[in-house]
Amino acid sequence: MVESSGEALISVRLRVNGSDHEIRVRPRESLAEALRAKLKLTGTHLSCQIGVCGACSVLLDGDLVRGCLILAAQASGRDVQTVEGLSQDDALSEVQSAMHEQHAVQCGFCTPGFVVLLHWLRAHRDEMDARELGEALSSNLCRCTGYAGLVRAAEALLDRRVDLGRTDEGDHLEPARGGIA
Amino acid sequence: MKVRVGEPMLGLEDAAFLKGRGTYLDDLPDDGDLHLAFVRSAAAHATIRAIDTTAADVIPGVIKSFTFQNLNARPITSYHTEPSWQPSVFPALADGRVRFVGQPIAAVLAVDPFIAEDAADHVQVDYEALPSIVDMSAALSDGAQPLHPGWSGNCYAKLRVQHGNPASALEQAPRRLRLRLRTNRQLGMTMEPRGVRAVGRDGTLTVHTSSQVPQMVRAGLARCLGLDPVRLRVATLDVGGGYGVKQQLFPEEIVAAVAALELERPVRWVEDSREHLLASVHAREQEHEIEVGFDDEGKVQVIKARIYTDAGAYSMYPSSAALDAEIAASSLPGPYEIANLEIEAFAVATNKCPVGPYRGVGRPMACLSIERVMDAIADQLGLDRLVVRRRNLIPSTAFPYTSPTGALYDSGRYAETVDLLRDAHAEFLVRRDARRSLGSCVGVGIAVSIEQASFVTAHRFVSRGVPLPFPKEQVRVTVERTGNVVALLPTHSHGQGHHSMVAQVLSDELGIDVEDVQVFFGDTAVTPNGLGTFNSRSVVVSAGGALVAARQIRQQGASVAAEFFGVPVERVAWEPGGYSITDSPGDRVTLGGLAEWLSGPESASRSGGQLSALWEYGDPDEVGTTSNAAHLAMVEVDPGTGATRVLDYVVVEDCGRVINPLSVDSQIQGGVAQGIGGALLEELVYDDSGQLRTATLADYLLPTATEVPPVTILHRETLSPFSANGSKGMAEGGAIAPGAVIVSAIEDALRPQARIFLTELPVTPQRLINALNAAQP
Amino acid sequence: MRPGPFAYAAPDSIDEALYLLAQHGDEAKVLAGGQSLIPLMRLRLANPGLVVDITRVSDLDYVRVEAGALRIGALVRHRKLETVTLSPEWRILPIAARNVAHLPIRFRGTFGGSIAHADPAAELPLVAQTLGAKMHLRSRKAQRVVDCGDFFRSFFTTNLRSDEILTEVALQAPPSGVHSAFLEFSRRPGDFAVVATAALVHVDAAGVCDWCRLGLAGVAATPIRLTSLEGELIGQPFNPRRLDSTVDAAMADFRSLGDVHADTHYRSHLSAVLLKRALHQIAGTLVGEHRKEI
Fold it and tell me: Is C255 helix (H, G, I), strand (E, B) or coil?
C-alpha cells in the first residue's frame, strides 16, 4: 500500500455481496476502483469513468448506481452488491440466463453492468411504466450487440413490452421528452 | 452437445462474462506493477522548446519519467507500395514537434496510477505554436506548409484507378449529375479502453495488450525496440471490443515495453475514455466529389470520383494512413456494374488524431456515395429507387466478377438479395402511409451494399514493410488423448465468438461435443503465425481452416483406425465422433481413443504420433470473399426539432454458408447499431485551433437501446467458391449501408412537405433543420 | 481521469459542515450527490483541496408544503422528487425530475446539488427559475434567502459563497388549477437538454390567461424566464389558434447561445418549437377539461 503523495488514507467499512470488509482507500478512490483494487472484484468494469456508460453499475443499498461516481468513502457503512454477488458458482441466474438465451453478449465488457441493470429492473418492474423501462434500458452503453438481444432479455425478464419509442400504434412519436400535468 | 453447422448455438463464452469473470487487461493482479501516465500535447501543432519533468520526478512514488531524450525506441513507421507514398515518422514520445492534440510527449512511471496521473500534471511543456491545419482544404491549398519534413504537399498517398474510357463516356452520356458528399470524423470507441502490461526480465519481454492483432504488434514492437522477436511474447486476454481501433501498434505500448525492459518490473498502462477519444485512432472523415453519366433508363455508364480522406497527423502501423482512401476507392462501384470509371483518392495529412480502420473501413463512405447516386438518378428520372438499383446490379451470371477498380468478387445473386426485400419494402410503405395519415412524418429508404472481406494476407503486409516472421497463417487442429480437440487460430476474438464458431464447425465435422473443443488464439507463444482479426476474415481463415484441418484429421484417422482394428482401410467407416468397421458395427473407436492408442506403445509403427492437421492461409493472389446485403429502414422525422428516429430495419444478407445464425445476426445487428450511430449521432468535432471539442462520452454520442431498433434479418446463402467452407466474411457489413439507407429514408419522410437531398453524415437535428430551411423558398 | 488529491470529511451535522467550509474557504467543495462534481473532478476541471460530503447530514431530505410554498430540502434525490406524491399544481416537478439524466444518476443526484451546480441546460434550475424560487443559504454565522434571479449568475456560477451551503429551495405555489408542461429536447434519453422549456398557465373561468410562467434552459448562461412572452399571453384568451403567432412574434429577436452541440440559430429555432408545443399541450388539457373549444 502506497501512502505517498501526502494523502491520508481513510478507513471504509463496506458490506459487499453479503460480507463485511474494512478497507483503506484514498479519499479520491471511487467505489468501483476500490472494489476492483482492494477487494479484487474485477467484474465491475470502468469505461467512460464519468457516469455515461454504466459498465461500473452496482447496487448501493439496493439502489442502481454508477460505481465511478461514488467515492468509496461515501459508501462507508453501506451495502454493496456487484455482479459477483448476483452470480452463483454453478448455474446462471435468471438475469444471466435471459441474456445468454437471447444472445445478448459479445465482447463481455459492458455485460456485468447490464446484469446489474437488468437485475434492478427485474426487481422493480412494477414501479415503472413501459416508457420508463425503455429509458432505463438506454442508460447503459453496449458497443457490440446493437442492443436487440439485451432488449429481448429485458422483455423476457420483465414479462412485458419495453417501450423504446418505436411503436406503430397511437400518437406520432415525440422525440422531445417531457410531459404535461 | 453436438451442433451442426447452420444451427443456432448459444455462446460458449457467455457464462464467464455474465458472471463478471472475464479477464480483461486491467483485471490482471497488481504484482508490484508500475503505472504509466502520459503527458499529451495541448497544442495541435507546435514546436516543443522544452520539457521539464523536475516537478514530477520529486513526487514521492514517481520512479522515472520518460521523454524523447531518454526513450530508447525507434519511431512508428508504416509503408505502402503506392509510388506516391510519403511516410511519416511517429515517435512514441514527441521529438521536439507535436502534430495533434493528445499526442504523447512524456510519460511518468509511478508506483500507483493516482500518483502517475498527478505527476503527469506536473510536467511542464513549453510550446511554440505553429499554424495548425485542421481541414483538408487548408492542407491541400497552394502554399500550405508540409506537415512532415521532406514532404511535397500534404498527402500521404495519391491513388488513381481508371477503367474503360471515362472521359468520352462522360461526354457522350445522355444525362449527368454531380454530387459532393461528406462523412464526418468518427471512431470505434471500444468499451474496454486500450491497455498494456509489460513484464521484462533479462532482455526478454512479455507484453499483454488489449489488441486485435497481437502477432503484428509483436513484429512492429520488436522493430521499434530493436529486439529479436524471439525475445518478445505478445499476448491478449479477454479484449473488450475492437472494431478496428485495436488493430495498431500504439505509442503507449512502446513506452510500456521500454520501461519494463529497463526497470525489470511489470509496467501497466490503462487508457481512459478521454485518451481514447483524443488519441487512439479516428476514422471515416472523407469528402467525395462524384460525377456520373447515365442513360434515360437510369443505367450508370461512367463514374468519376475524387475521394479525400482526412488521415490525421501520422500514419499508423500496420494499416497505414492510406487505408480509408484505398478501400473507399476500390469499393466505390459497390454492387453495380459500371463500365467506365476514374477515381483519384487522396490521404491528406492534418493536425488531427491519426486514423485507422473502423468497421467498414472506407466502405460506408463508398456506399453512401454510390447509393446517393442511385437515389439522385431515381429522383431525376422520376423512377422508383429500387428499380434504378435493379437496373444497375451486377447480374448473377457475371461471377466471378472483376470490378472496374480491379476487385474480384467471388459470387452472388445480387438481384435476388434485393428481391428478398420486396415484401418487407411493400409492408413498410403501407405502414408509412398509415402513419402519415395520422400526421407523422415517416419515410422509407433502401440501400444495397457489398463487403469484400478476408482478402488481406500476410503477403500484403510484408510487401508493405511489415516485418512478419511468417509467410502464411496457420490453423492447427489436434485431437488429444482425452478426446478433447484443440484448435489454434491465427485470428483473434474480441466479441465475435470464435471459440463457439470453431467448436460448432468441429462438432459438425468430427461429430464431437462442442464442450470438448478448446480454442486458443492471441498469444505469440502459442499461435505465432497469424495476423489477428480485421477485414471480416475469421470465418474464412479460422472456421474455414478448422474445417479443412478436421477433414484431414478424418482422413488420417481412417488409416490409423485401420491399423487399430487390423483391417484394410477400405473396411473402416466414419461415424460421428470416430470409426467403425463396415459390417461389424460393434467394433468402434472414438477419435480420442485413437489418439490415445496412437500415443501409446501399441501403435508400434506410429509411436508418439498425433491426430493433428495444419492448414495454411495466405496465397499472394488471395482475393477473399464478397458478401452482399440489402438494407431497408423506416424512420420518423420530427420536422420541428430535426430529430430522426429509426423505427424499423430489415437486412437481407448473403454471406454464403452461415455457421451460426445467432452469431451472424448479432454481428449484423451490432454493425447496424454502429451505422445508425454514424448516420445520426457520432461526430468528432475539432475547432479551428485543432482542439477536440467532443472529448468525453457525454459529447461523442453513441447509440443506446432507444436509438437502435431490433433488425429483422433474412438470409440468402450463395456459397463462395473461394473459401473452404463456402462462407463469406460479413461482420462489417451491418455498418456499411445504414448511412445511405437512413438519409434516403429521411428524405422520403419529408417528401410530402419538402424536397431535400442530404449530403453529409451524421444527419444531426441541426443539419436537418438547416436543410429544411434551405429547401423552403 | 482520476481526481486530484483531496481531503475528505463527512460531517453528521450541518453546523459541522459549515464550520469546515468557514475554515477552508475556496479550497473546500460541498459534495452532495456528486453526479456532476465527481465527473468534473475526474476531468480535473474541479480540484478542491477538501471535499465536504454532506450526505450524512440529517434533516435536509424533505419535500413539504408550508404556508403555500413547497419547501425542498437540499438533499432530496431526483428519484425521490420523481416519485413523490404532490398536489396537481406541483406536478411539473416530478416531470422535470424524471427528465434529469438517467435513472442511476437520479438515484444519487440531489435537488440542492443540481441547483448549486447551475448547469444552464439543467432541468431543476429551469423549474426553480421559472417558478421564482427562493434559495435558502446558510453559513456558519448567517443565513440568507436569495431570489433565483440573483442566485443564478452565469454558467455553473451562483451567488453561493464558498462558506455557504444551499439548504433549501422554496417555491411559491402556482395558482390552484394551473396547467403545466415540461418539454425537453435531448439527442438521446438521459442526455443534457439541447433546449428545455417549463410552461405553467392558469386560465380563468372565461378562458382568459390570468397567470403564466415560461422558462427556457440550454439557451443562455443561466436558465431564463420569458417575461415578455408571459406578458403577451396574460390577459388574453388562451386560444390555441393564436399561440403560434404569439410565440413567433415574441421570439423573433431571441438569440440563444450556441456551442459545439447546437448553434445559435438551431437553439433559437428549437426554443420557439418547444414553447409552442408546450403551450399547445396545455391548450389540449384545457380542451379536455372544459369540454369545449376555446
Answer: coil
A85 to chain B: closest CA residue? B19
List all residues of chain A from 60 to 79 with a beta carbon under 8 Å from chain B.
none
Q: From C51, which residue of chain A is nearest by alpha-carbon distance?
A: A27
Question: What are C205's three cell numbers?
Answer: 373561468
Buried b (16+ CB within 10 A) or exposed e, B188-205: bbbbbbbbbbbbbeeeeb
Residue located via cell numbers 435558502: C136
- What pLDDT does residue B241 have? 98
Question: Contact B114/C5, CB-based, under 8 Å?
Answer: yes
Contact B211, B243 (CB under 8 A): no
Interface predicted TM-score (ipTM) of this complex, two decimals: 0.97
Q: For chain A, which chains pass the contact test of at least 3 CB pairs under 8 Å?
A: B, C
> What is the edge-to-edge ordering of all strands in the sheet holding B578-581?
B572-575, B578-581, B584-590
| B2 CB-contact burial (10 Å; exposed 0-12 / middle 13-18 / buried 19+) | middle
Q: What is the DSSP string of B552-615?
A: HHHHHHHHHHHHHHTS-GGGEEEETTEEEETTEEEEEEEHHHHHHHHHSTT-GGGTT--EEEEE
> Chain B contact for C266, CB < 8 A?
yes
Predicted TM-score (pTM) of the model is 0.97
Nearest CA in chain A to B648: A166
Q: Tell me whether residues C99 and A26 touch, CB distance under 8 A.
A: no
Q: From residue A157, give the alpha-carbon distance in Å to each of A97, A121, A127, B662, C119.
A: 10, 9, 15, 20, 37
Q: Tens of pLDDT along B509-547? A: 999 999 999 999 999 999 999 999 999 999 999 999 999
Q: Nearest Cα to B434, choosing from B585, B648, B707?
A: B648
Contacts of B661 in chain A (CB under 8 A): none
- Distance, in Å, from the CA atom of B421 to the CA atom of B434, rounded to the nearest integer, reads 20
Average pLDDT of chain B, as a whole number = 96
Interatomic CA distance for residues B491 and B215, integer angstroms: 10
* Least Cα separation, residue C26 to chain B (angstroms): 21
**CA angle (B24 as vertex; B263, B204 as ends), nearest 5:** 30
Identify all chain C residues contacting A136, using CB atoms and an 8 Å cutoff.
102-103
Calpha distance B681→B415 (Å, rounded):
32
In 3D space, the residue among B117, B67, B68, B116 whose CA is nearest the CA of residue B89 turns out to be B68
> Percent of chain B beyond pLDDT 70?
99
**Smallest CA–CA separation between C146 and chain A, in Å?**
28
Chain center to CA of B66? 32
Q: What letters, b where the CB count within 10 A reaches 16 and e where it falls short, cover B150-176?
A: eeebbbbbbbebebeebeebbeebeee
H or E stretch at B176: strand B175-183
- Give the nearest partner residue to C260 out of B121, B272, B685, using CB atoms: B685
Q: Assess B772–C contact: CB distance below 8 Å, yes or no.
A: no
Burial of C90 (0-12, 13-18, 19+ CB in 10 A): buried
* Amino acid letter for position C185: F
What's the number of CA atoms in the CB half-sphere (13 Å) around residue B465? 15
C-alpha cell at B441: 412524418
Q: Do B709 and A166 make contact, defined as CB atoms within 8 angstroms?
A: yes
Cα C148 off chain centre by: 10
User: C53–A71: do the CB atoms touch at under 8 Å?
Assistant: yes
Are the C-beta atoms of B502 and B512 separated by less than 8 Å?
Answer: no
Torsional class of B291: left (φ above 0), alpha (ψ -120 to 50), beta (otherwise): beta
* Site from C38, C78, C191 to mutate, A interface, most A CB atoms within 10 angstroms: C38
Which of B153, B43, B135 lies closest to B97, judged by CA? B43
Could you report the per-residue pLDDT of A87-96, keeping only the tens digit for each?
Answer: 998 899 999 9
